[in-house]
Design goal:
By secondary structure, the chain is α/β, with parallel strands linked by helices. It contains six helices and nine strands; from the N terminus they run βββαββαβαββααβα. 42% of the residues are buried.
């Protein structure tokens, strides 16, 4: 699952549409997911009307929270384990995503957590309950699950929060 939403307040424009290496961050993440997973789902806000070359499932909430996207994506997924990739970690590899899926108990996260991650369908009731209660921090939800930690090369987890972050990654 690709999370394309987010307010992008620090970035100043939708991160999903930001270019890196000849493709947008969303296209890049979608490609990696497609090379890795049997099923791909993008989740975001229909109201954002992002012009992307793939469909985006609306998360069905007013909340701007990763938890809302995770709940919508795990609900929609047809597999027992769903790997979640946010659009703003463009250096994540297929190997890391496969490692998260293989390690998943109720969930699996990297050492920096909470995303990227993997979730088993059996984690959905807890995630749904937290969303319904307005307890939106995904990190807090993970503390209530049996979550494996997958240690990844920190370079793969570089996060794009600002245009300067993107320029630094583009410069290599």
């Amino acid at each position: 699952m690709l999370l394309v939403g987010g307010a992008s307040a620090r970035f100043g424009s939708p991160k999903a549409l930001a270019p890196l290496g000849g493709e947008t961050l969303a296209e890049r993440a979608w490609r990696v997911l497609g090379e890795t997973c049997d099923e791909t789902i993008a989740v975001g806000k229909a109201a954002d009307a992002l012009e992307l070359p793939f469909p985006v499932l609306d998360d069905g909430t007013e909340e701007r929270a990763s938890l809302a996207g995770v709940v919508a994506g795990v609900r929609a997924a047809t597999h027992a384990v769903t790997v979640v990739l946010p659009v703003d970690v463009p250096l994540v590899t297929s190997g890391l995503l496969l490692g998260l899926a293989a390690a998943c108990r109720d969930a699996a996260v990297t050492q920096t957590g909470p995303l990227p991650a993997a979730f088993r369908r059996n984690a959905l009731p807890l995630l749904e309950a937290r969303l319904a209660a307005g307890e939106l921090r995904l990190r807090d939800a993970l503390e209530r699950l049996d979550a494996a930690v997958v240690y990844a090369d920190p370079a793969l987890l570089e996060n794009v929060n600002t245009p300067d972050d993107l320029e630094r990654l583009a410069a290599g």
